Structures are given as C-alpha cells and as structure tokens.
Amino acid sequence: MKILYVAGEALPFASSGGLGDVIGSLPAALAKEDAGTDVRVVMPLYSAIGREWREKFTFIKAMTVKLAWRSQYCGIFSFVHNGVTFYFLDNEYYFARPRLYGEYDDGERFAFFCRAALEILPEIGFFPDILHAHDWHAALSVIYLKQYYSRADARYAGIKAVMTIHNIQYQGIFGFAILGDVFGLMPSDYEIVEYDGDINLLKGGIVCADRVTTVSPTYALEIRSPRFSHGLDGVLDRFYFKLSGILNGIDTSYYNPAKDKEIAAHYSWRKPEGKAECKAALRRELGLPEKDVPIVAVISRLVGHKGLDLVMLAGEELMKREIQFVVLGKGEQGYENYFGSLAYRFGDKCRALITYDRALSKRIYAASDLFLMPSRSEPCGLAQMIASRYGAVPVIHETGGLYDSIKDVGSPGGGNGFTFAAYSSYELMHSVDRALKMYYDDREFFEKLRKKVMRTDFSWKKSAAEYTALYATLL
Q1: Checking DSSP bridges between strand 198-200 and strand 194-195, what pairing results, if any?
Q2: CB atoms < 10 A from the CB of 54, how many?
Q3: Is residue 5 helix, strand or coil?
Q4: Helix extents (H) in 200-261
C-alpha cells in the first residue's frame, strides 16, 4: 500500500501544535506496523526549518507549477526520517515567512502547496493508492485530485482521498472573488466549495473525499451537532457515511521520562523515584518554595475553547488549596493578563510562563502531580496523554478525545484520571478537590493511580492499525 500525507506541518521540522505531532509520528507508526506500506509526507519548505535539517535534504529537481494564471517556481527536496520519506516544496515567495499560518495570502499560499503536491508525483515517481489530506490547508489537494487530475490523467484516477479534520473551527473561508483568480477553480465547482455565501475549503474537501476522519470517535459524533460543528453539521449529516473517528496517539519514544534528556532525572512507573527530583528541580527553576504539596499544571494555548474561562472563574478558590500552580502557554491577551495577575498576587504558590517552550513543557509535565485540561471542546488532545506518560494525573472535562482517552477513577473497573461532565467551574473544582483529597488522605492509592496512568497505552500502534484497516476498505 502506498500512502501520501499532505499536511501543512510536521515535527521535527516545523510545527505550531498537535497537527505537527501527528504528522511527525503517525506515518512512522504506519510504516512500522506493516513493512509493505510505503508512507510518504509532503509539506512546505518553511524558512522556520533550520539549517541543521536543510543540510541533510536532497535536492531532486526544480519545476514550474501553474496556479490559475500564475506559473510559479517549485523546488523539490527529500529526506528520510524514521523510515518515512518527506518531500519539502520550496517557494520562498510563499513560505519564507515568520509564521507557518496567519498570513494575508494564506489561501494562495496553500492553493500553490496543494497544486504542487499533485504536480510533483510524476517527478518523484510515486503515485499513491491513498492521498491523505490534513485540515483545510491541504483540502484543495483533495478537490484538485477529484475534480481535475483524476479526470484528465489516468495515473491519478485510481487514487483514493481521505480528509482528516483536526479542528473543525478552522475551515479555510474566503470570498468567491478569488475562486478562479487564485484557486484556479471553475464556476462548475461552486456547489462543491460554497457554504453560507463563501468559499469553504474544508467543506469542499469533505464533499470530494472518499472518507472523512476526525481525531477521536467522540468528536466525530459531536461535530454532527450545531454546538460543535461551527456551521458544518448539515454537510456532515449529508455525508455521514464517510465519517469516522480514530483517536490520536503520541510518540512514546519522544515522550519518555525514562530516557528524556530534557528533564532533571529519569524515572518510570516501575522506578518512580526520579519524579521527586524533577519536582525539586522545577521548584528551583521557578523560585517556588520547597514544600510537600502537589504541583498542578496547565500547559495549553491560552484560547477560549481550552476551558480557561473555568480556570479563571475557579482561580481564587484554587489558590485557597494547598497546591503550587504552574501555567505555561501563549494566546489571547485576556488570558495572558489574568494568569500573569494571578501569579503576581499569589507569588508564593503560582507561576505564569507566557511563552511557547517545548523543553520547558516537558520539565513541567515531569514535575506535576495533577494536570488540568477542562476544554470546552477538544477534538483529541495530546496534552492529557503526554501528562499521563510523565505521571501527572489528568483532570479533564468529558468532551471529544478527552472523553475517549481519560476515564474517571470512580468508573467501573477504575480509571486513569478525574473527570467531570457538566461544563462549570464548580464541577472543575469538585474534581480537583477529589484528586487533592486522594493525594493528602490516601497517598499510597494516589501513587498506585499515578503508576496506572503512566502505564496507559497512548502509543500509535492501535491507531495505526485502525488507519490501515480504513485504507484497506478503500482499496
């Protein structure tokens, strides 16, 4: 089986969040699952990709890619990483930018990327059985494939398309004035991409794809309701037969406290002693008092759907508990200001680190006892899985992938965290208090829970097998 992933980012090359984690680890897991699977990835060659990587890339060739009336240069570079061949598409006009996304011409930038991802196939001698596009940035590759390439060239005709929605909030919405001028689409494509009077690229990808997946089973159900769909529930109801959810995993070799070089001491569920040293090291780093209290952490983009309004409402009450509280993240100004203020007012027990720092996040995971993730909506979430790997017991709101990955300790057969169903600050604090009561009143049981949490299998193995089975249904 031959699979081509089309995505806007991938670790370790360039990433802005969870999508990069997935594209950096899922293809490798698929290749490992079945030696007969040839998995490749195509992504832009951003200026953010450092020289330490670029020096290892192999230049294949330069070509010209047509986009509407434009003829644009495209350089093709390749590199094999973890058994997966990555292709990097070079065009400095589009990709020599300080950010991966959020530019005024994102529509044109990613239209070029999607067109080029298809144009390079004859040049690299690789026509996949499956083209798997991720999020709206790659949706045009599905639309172009089904509306144009498969109809005009027999080499493309047999390629099946899978469209994965990582977060339905981001849909690629543009005015119809650029339908032909920028995207190179015809008036006959109007019904495919039109939604609410605009071009909606994610909607077009859903319509054209052979299968549509989300990153957890519960989220696949949730996005068919108006509460979670950001307007696309009608489209997903129409194409419900295409839709399924497969829970993401994490790279358990990268997130491994037994070998992680970026934390103060190594430990595992069998030999957990090093976690105490990690707690002590973080306290020294952040200037927190050395006390026998649990460290409670939030590591998140500071945006509304992450449930931070609940943390704000509960903040004063939370500071009354015998804890130390650490927040790491960047995002909306209101949240940054609030957590900065909380740390200023409660300087003996709270720290707000308004930054994005992957190495620091791992030190916080390794030091923490409890990890708060009260998201209002969460397609999958990786932070609760990473926290579990490092022995920080999750406290989560039952939504999306959080519900699929974390079960309450009070559930039949026990669980691997503390959960709450109603979206309220009261329910959040009730779950936090249950966790603190266990920590203080029954430390032995809490440590058993911590070991159980660390043993939870969040590897890609099961998910990779599910993707392989899904691809097989198309072939």
Answers
A1: antiparallel
A2: 14
A3: strand
A4: 201-208, 217-222, 226-229, 233-238
One-letter amino acid of 257? P
Are the C-beta atoms of residues 140 and 111 closer than 8 Å to each other? yes
pLDDT for 11: 92
Angle, vertex CA 151, rays to CA 147 and CA 152, nearest 5: 115
Tell me the whole-structure pTM to 2 decimals: 0.93
pLDDT recorded at residue 153: 95
CA-angle at 212, arms to 208 and 217, nearest 5°: 165
Calculated CA dihedral for residues 227, 228, 231, 232, nearest 10 degrees: -130
d(CA 424, CA 230): 22
Q: Where are the alpha helices (DSSP H) in 260-411?
A: 274-286, 308-318, 333-345, 358-367, 383-389, 400-405
* pLDDT confidence of residue 17: 82
Sheet holding 173-174, edge to edge: 173-174, 198-200, 194-195
For the record, the structure tokens of 367 come out as: 């030091």
φ and ψ at residue 33, rounded to 5 degrees:
-65, -40
C-alpha–C-alpha distance, residues 148 and 145, integer Å = 6
Q: What is the pLDDT of residue 279?
A: 98
Q: What share of the chain is helix, strand, coil (3-state, %, to 5)?
A: 45, 20, 35
> Which pair of tokens denotes residue 200?
């909606």
Report which residue type is found at 334. G
Q: Considering its fold, how many domains does the chain have in total?
A: 2
| Confidence (pLDDT) at 35 | 78
H or E, element range at 467: helix 461-474
Residue 410, token pair as written in the block: 């009070």
For residue 262, tell me if it sits in a domain.
no
For the chain, give the number of residues.
475
Instruction: Clarify whether residues 82 and 212 are in a common domain.
Output: yes
Regions of the chain with pLDDT less than 70:
none
- Integer-rounded Cα Rg, in Å, for the chain is 23
Please check whether residue 89 is in contact with residue 74, taking contact to mean a CB–CB distance below 8 angstroms: yes
Amino acid making up residue 94: Y
Whole-Å CA distances, 470 to 213, 246, 313, 465: 10, 10, 43, 9
**Residue 264 in domain:** no
**Is 102 part of a structural domain of the chain?**
yes
Same domain, 344 and 205: no
C-beta of residue 460 within 8 angstroms of C-beta of residue 215? no
Put residue 197 in one of left, alpha, beta given phi > 0 → left and psi -120 to 50 → alpha.
left
Where does 34-183 have alpha helices with state H? Answer: 51-54, 92-95, 106-119, 121-124, 139-144, 150-152, 154-157
Residues 90 and 69 in one domain: yes
Q: From residue 70, how far is each of 111, 112, 118, 136, 177 by CA, in Å?
A: 12, 10, 16, 22, 16
